[in-house]
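Here is an idea for our session: we take a single protein and study its fold together. To get us started, please write out a protein record for me. Start from the sequence, derive the backbone structure tokens from it, and show both lines together. Go ahead whenever you are ready, and we will take it from there:
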Amino acid sequence: MENWNWCVYIIECLDGTFYTGCTWNIDNRWEQHKAGKGSKYTIKHGVKKLVYYEKFENLDTARYREKQIKDWSQEKKRKLISGEWKQDWNKK
């Protein structure tokens, strides 16, 4: 699994909130979310569109980034999506 390419992604939900996830196959995962089989959150809030993703070479780094983004406010996620938020997130 470490040799796969991983993606951290953000989906805009129908109610304007954002869902952040991690996958090795972003196209397949998006189809799962659209079909109502993605996550409890997206099933409850509906999906509008895939608005952002980042690629990673290993799972540990991708999961670290996913957790980081999940902890952010909706406003900070909006800034990341729009390109307003630029940060060297690898630094602690």
